[in-house]
Write a structure and sequence with these properties.
The protein starts with 18 loop residues before the first helix and ends with a helix. It has 143 residues and is mainly alpha-helical. 45% of the residues lie in helices and 8% in strands. It has one domain (19-142): 3-Layer(aba) Sandwich (Rossmann fold).
Length: 143
């Protein structure tokens, strides 16, 4: 698998028939990996969804790290939705003792002109630029 997909590392959890238990096991594995790997001043792009949210919700003690969790995708859900990247970023920052940054843009727009207009916004552009730094491509490409 490492060779086929040109990976330097793969985290593999045991298969479980119960979907929620499987999600908890993967979250525990990733949470433990993050606890061992995170360093101060790292920038991590955070996705959305139940699996990523489970990492933030995983119970466990971790040493605080002064890192930044940035939304890897704009808003797609109603405010307060637990699987929204913004809420997950905030929960990960709280869990690991870092900070979070919101991407103030919708995830989807109706046309290219609207996309270009959002991309010209200084706040959105700055967040996307910080998110794009290759400080930890594993996080941005897998989670």
């Amino acid at each position: 698998m490492l060779e086929r997909f040109s990976l330097s590392r793969a985290l593999i959890a045991l298969d479980h028939q119960d979907e929620e238990e499987q999600r908890r096991q993967v979250a525990a594995l990733v949470s433990g990996y993050l606890a061992m790997t995170l360093k101060d001043d790292m920038v991590l792009a955070v996705g959305q969804g139940r699996n990523v949210a489970a990492i933030a919700d995983h119970v466990g003690s971790v040493a605080p790290k002064s890192c930044k969790f940035i939304c890897g995708i704009g808003g797609t859900h109603r405010p307060g939705d637990a699987i929204n990247a913004d809420h997950i970023s905030r929960r990960l920052a709280k869990k690991f003792g870092g900070s979070s940054e919101t991407l103030y843009a919708p995830a989807y727009v109706e046309n290219r002109a609207l996309k270009e207009a959002f991309m010209q916004n200084g706040t959105i552009k700055e967040t996307l630029d910080r998110r794009a730094r290759p400080m930890w491509p594993w996080w941005a490409s897998v989670i």
